[in-house]
């Protein structure tokens, strides 16, 4: 019997099988328990002889089971350790790295070019009041020009006026020139004395969405105020910028007469390009492409900002950053710029 039970103990391959063997041997009606029950019917002499034998058998089997149980548990632990081991030689999962958004890349390129020409950087708020976005810029009250910008208006404030999401960066012209008593946040440039030579990159907003318009877009404004400034300075500045931006010795440009309330005369500038292929090629071909608005700062704007137009003159321009970026780097649809599609961003993004 002992040999039979110990063989079965050895064969038990897991805890459950071992427990079954234990019940068969040592359980209430197990083989050894039944043997122990026979002691009661024995004569005292017989019992004195058999008792120690059967009890010894029970103790040895119990010890064997305990030993086997410990061995099985150790094996189980080993197996778990082996299966759950971290393999440090496996390659790490690829780490996704962010990239510089094309708009920001292009803005940095533009800022660097203008910094080279001696322009300082100015900023203004995205949420503007009517005065800076329109009135000070010589938009007559109730004039349709205010609607021309497809303005996003904010709800009426406690003072009964409605702020706007700025429709262009031109309000920062006013903030730079104007001397005010209010203390704006430190990042808003105010009250500079002429000569002024600033650029203003920033977000702008209009209710517009198609292949070449997005409701949020970026402009870069330029403003120069000094004595004796004329349109020749404006043309040279823009021609120099365009050639450097498109990394060509010269790009042919032309001024087309236009109207802005805040400049007089006003012009739109076109660049020479080839639009016959899928991608627009700048600086060659027979087509023209409009890229910015500009002009001489209107005397009324100078006056609104506390400058005497008989002493100070200036020019200003405003260009679309995203659109110039799309032109340089060949993006067919401006809306993709702000769709936050990581595949697009990975394809067109720039490494930091
Ligand atoms: N603010 C004008 C626009 O958004 C561009 C512009 C800027 C025109 C400065 C003239 C001078 O269309």
Automatic annotation (TrEMBL):
Primary residence? cytoplasm
Task: Determine the domain of life of the protein's source.
Answer: Bacteria
> InterPro entries from the xrefs?
aa-tRNA-synth_II, aa-tRNA-synth_II/BPL/LPL, Phe-tRNA-synth_IIc_asu, Phe-tRNA_ligase_II_N, Phe_tRNA_ligase_alpha1_bac, Phenylalanyl-tRNA_Synthase, tRNA-bd_arm
Q: Where is the protein found, in the record's own terms?
A: Cytoplasm
Cofactor(s) listed = Mg(2+)
Task: Give the matching PROSITE patterns.
Answer: AA_TRNA_LIGASE_II
What is one Pfam family matched by this protein? tRNA-synt_2d
Q: Name one GO molecular function term.
A: phenylalanine-tRNA ligase activity
Q: Where does Mg(2+) bind?
A: 264
Question: E.C. number, please?
Answer: 6.1.1.20
* Reactions catalysed according to its record: tRNA(Phe) + L-phenylalanine + ATP = L-phenylalanyl-tRNA(Phe) + AMP + diphosphate + H(+)
Print the keywords alphabetically.
Aminoacyl-tRNA synthetase, ATP-binding, Cytoplasm, Ligase, Magnesium, Metal-binding, Nucleotide-binding, Protein biosynthesis
At the top of the EC hierarchy, this enzyme's class is ligase
Explain how, and how many, cofactor molecules are bound.
Answer: Binds 2 magnesium ions per tetramer.
Which part of the chain is the Aminoacyl-transfer RNA synthetases class-II family profile domain?
113-352
> PANTHER family under this entry?
PHENYLALANINE--TRNA LIGASE, MITOCHONDRIAL (PTHR11538:SF41), PHENYLALANYL-TRNA SYNTHETASE (PTHR11538)
Identify its protein family: Belongs to the class-II aminoacyl-tRNA synthetase family. Phe-tRNA synthetase alpha subunit type 1 subfamily.
**NCBIfam families xrefs:** pheS (TIGR00468)
Whom does it interact with, and what assembly results? Tetramer of two alpha and two beta subunits.
Recorded protein name is Phenylalanine--tRNA ligase alpha subunit
Protein's organism: Phenylobacterium terrae
